[in-house]
Amino acid sequence: MSAAAIILAAGMGTRMRSPRPKVMHPLGGRPMIRHLLAATQARFGRVVVVVGPDMPELEAAVAPHEVAVQRERLGTAHAALAAMPLLGGHAGDVAVLYGDNPLITEATMGRLLAARAEADLVLLAMRPADPARYGRVITRTDGMVERIVEWAEADEAERAVGLCNAGVVCAGAQDLARWLAAVRNDNAKGEYYLGDVVALARAEGRRVGFVEAPEAELRGINSKAELAIAEAELQAAMRAAALDAGVTMTAPETVFLCHDTRLGADVVVEPHVVFGPGVSVEAGAVIRAFSHLESCVVKREAIIGPYARLRPGTVVEARAHVGNFVELKATTLGEDAKANHLAYLGDASIGAGANIGAGTITCNYDGVHKHRTEIGADAFIGSNTALVAPVTVGARALVGAGSVITSSVPDDALAIARGRQTVFGGRGFKGKKGASRSDDHGAQGRGSPDRPAAPKEQI
Question: Tens digits of per-residue pLDDT, 70-105?
Fold first, then answer.
């Protein structure tokens, strides 16, 4: 019989100081609830998420998993009990997890389920560097759990115990349902606590075991400060995995990865690079310093940056170059093509071997709709060119610097679209001896003994 999981996610997280549900705060580029779901659905055949009332954003984020609504927030046991009707008829194991413990791994969940063979109820426990006010797990000589003691009720010897309760429990469905229904709220807050099922199980003479996991997996996230700590730990783990896979990072502590970043072998990532969601970089590519990539593909041996921005929908083909202060959006830059500096290329297809000059922009937005620019293979776009989409520049075409291209350019053609230069002799700067340019600059257009005003028709 496959196991089921209940994830408690109804809390608003007042210590987050945010109207967003606590478990929707991002970690590694996705809501923390999505991290937990990814690990949970790999081990559990069925998942029910307990949400609070009026949380449509959270309900959408956990779809297609079933949702139970805790109408009143009366504690963790009360929340778990709200999910049990959806598991009616389920005869296997049920684990109760917390949405604000997002980094529990699939492996740890597997050990939790395996431990059920030796105990009627199993906990997850940890040994945090600072046990602080965690509940202590008091064990027997046979290694089973005797009881959980909350910090406020623990004596000096019990507070010295380093093994702490992480809150997660796993038991057979029928046992868990009975214990949840029996939990009382005779405590200072008048809430029903999930941890009380341990005492109920022990009162029946049941065996209660535990599985120990690292603090980094089991630490709860209840504030923005704790979210930042978890982010740092997750980033360190992702960087280590990338380095082990053959990625070169010259200053890994400055590189920020996303949960789904894919970096091939021998990719080089220079300092201060940020990867947003949905980035794939193939083998041998170089991402130079201070670049930002999101929802894009960088093919083998391409060079990105420094100071480049790749926005969603961008594909940089093999050996192409995207240089400093170049931004690409929904653009394909062909093999061996180059856009080496100071350009914006949006909604464009650029052929193999094309060269995009400094200051080039694709004018892709008319205020209502986006339009595409097509540039053929081996085309040359001169500096400071504006390509007013929709427009096509043919293969091997040449566009003169400073042009505003509004009509398509055929293959192998030269296009120049700029105002004709006019030169007026003797009208240059003729400042008085010893005068600075700033002294006379304000006189332009008004006339002076040394600089007469231009005729009206020449202004």
Answer: 999 999 999 999 999 999 889 899 999 999 999 999
Per-residue pLDDT, averaged over 12-24, amounts to 90
DSSP H or E stretch at residue 344: strand 338-346
How is residue 184 written in tokens?
A: 């009382």
Q: 325 with 342: CB under 8 angstroms?
A: yes
Rounded to 5 degrees, what are φ and ψ at 437?
Answer: -65, -35
Catalytic machinery residues: 341
Q: What is the CA radius of gyration of the chain?
A: 32
Q: How far apart are CA 55 and CA 411, in angstroms?
A: 56
Please enumerate in sequence order all residues whose Cβ is within 8 A of that of 168, keeping only pairs 6 or more positions apart, or say none. Answer: 95, 96, 97, 98, 101, 104, 112, 123, 124, 218
Q: Is the pTM of this model over 0.70?
A: yes
pLDDT at residue 455, as a whole number: 42
DSSP 217-276: HH----SHHHHHHHHHHHHHHHHHHHHHTT-EESSGGG-B--TT-EE-TT-EE-SS-EE-
Distance set, CA 409 to CA 148, 237, 333, 356, 380 (Å): 77, 51, 19, 15, 12
pLDDT tens digits, 224-252? 999 999 999 999 999 999 999 999 999 99
